[in-house]
Automatic annotation (TrEMBL):
<dbReference type="InterPro" id="IPR001789">
    <property type="entry name" value="Sig_transdc_resp-reg_receiver"/>
</dbReference>
<keyword id="KW-0805">Transcription regulation</keyword>
<feature type="domain" description="Response regulatory">
    <location>
        <begin position="6"/>
        <end position="119"/>
    </location>
</feature>
<dbReference type="InterPro" id="IPR011006">
    <property type="entry name" value="CheY-like_superfamily"/>
</dbReference>
<keyword id="KW-0804">Transcription</keyword>
<keyword id="KW-0902">Two-component regulatory system</keyword>
<feature type="domain" description="OmpR/PhoB-type">
    <location>
        <begin position="131"/>
        <end position="230"/>
    </location>
</feature>
<keyword id="KW-0238">DNA-binding</keyword>
<dbReference type="InterPro" id="IPR039420">
    <property type="entry name" value="WalR-like"/>
</dbReference>
<dbReference type="InterPro" id="IPR001867">
    <property type="entry name" value="OmpR/PhoB-type_DNA-bd"/>
</dbReference>
<dbReference type="Pfam" id="PF00486">
    <property type="entry name" value="Trans_reg_C"/>
</dbReference>
<keyword id="KW-0597">Phosphoprotein</keyword>
<dbReference type="Pfam" id="PF00072">
    <property type="entry name" value="Response_reg"/>
</dbReference>
<protein>
    <submittedName>
        <fullName>Response regulator transcription factor</fullName>
    </submittedName>
</protein>
<feature type="DNA-binding region" description="OmpR/PhoB-type">
    <location>
        <begin position="131"/>
        <end position="230"/>
    </location>
</feature>
<dbReference type="InterPro" id="IPR036388">
    <property type="entry name" value="WH-like_DNA-bd_sf"/>
</dbReference>
<feature type="modified residue" description="4-aspartylphosphate">
    <location>
        <position position="55"/>
    </location>
</feature>
Length: 230
């Protein structure tokens, strides 16, 4: 089915790395092992990948540095798989560009399901039809190139940030609840995980403000959700 789909697994523990690769193979995908941050960067520079599974505590180069580099140049899904349990680390990684965060020890079936979910979403974004450009104020989204520009400067958005912004710009007068946004973008049931949406909205606002700090693009409708600010 998906022999062409390649997933880079960056994990210095051999047993865990092999386990993740087995999960990937069982789903029909093609894994590539990397045991250090330096090795991972070599693979990232030489080939294109459909997904990266990334540990944080790595020899050579830490996972958070690798994540930053990926987010600067690509919108491929990155799932953090780490023993770090603190909430601040999770929030920081999501803000940096991670699409998901799974803590160790993990359930094999859950990892498999999350991989498949993110791949479906990534493939759907890549197959967006060339309809028309979405424009709001000085934001311009090109659905064919999957780019976001503010004042003609291109921004680096993660796959989910891109989907959220496209959803808001597709219906500029609509107020989207957190449930609307989560279920439309994540394609999963919403269980009051307010923080996930908050983090992604914050990321989008910060990236837009980095180009035009004097403009407000997304407004919070208290008790309801978010919409584009006219």
């Amino acid at each position: 089915m998906v022999e062409q789909i390649r997933i880079l697994v960056v994990e210095d523990d051999n047993d865990i790395n092999q386990l993740l690769c087995n999960i990937i193979r069982k789903s029909g995908y093609s894994p590539q092992l990397a045991f250090s941050g330096t090795e991972a960067m070599l693979y990232l520079e030489k080939k294109d990948w459909d997904m990266v599974l990334l540990d944080l505590m790595l020899p050579g180069m830490s996972g958070d540095v690798i994540l930053t580099k990926i987010a600067e140049h690509s919108n491929i899904p990155v799932i953090i798989i780490s023993a770090k349990l603190d909430q601040q680390t999770k929030i920081s990684m999501l803000r940096t560009g991670a699409d998901d965060y799974i803590t160790k020890p993990f359930d094999n079936e859950e990892v498999s399901a999350r991989i498949e979910s993110h791949l479906r979403r990534y493939q759907r974004i890549n197959k967006l039809p060339n309809t028309k450009k979405l424009i709001h104020k000085d934001i311009e989204v090109d659905s064919e190139a999957r780019t976001v520009c503010v004042q003609r400067q291109e921004l680096n958005f993660t796959a989910r940030e891109y989907e959220i912004l496209v959803l808001l710009m597709s219906s500029p007068k609509k107020v989207f609840t957190k449930k609307n946004l989560f279920e439309s973008v994540w394609k999963e049931a919403f269980y009051r995980d307010d923080n996930t949406i908050n983090v992604h909205i914050s990321n989008i606002r910060n990236k837009l403000a980095a180009i035009n700090p004097d403009e407000q693009y997304i407004e919070t409708i208290w008790g309801m959700g978010y919409r584009l600010k006219t």
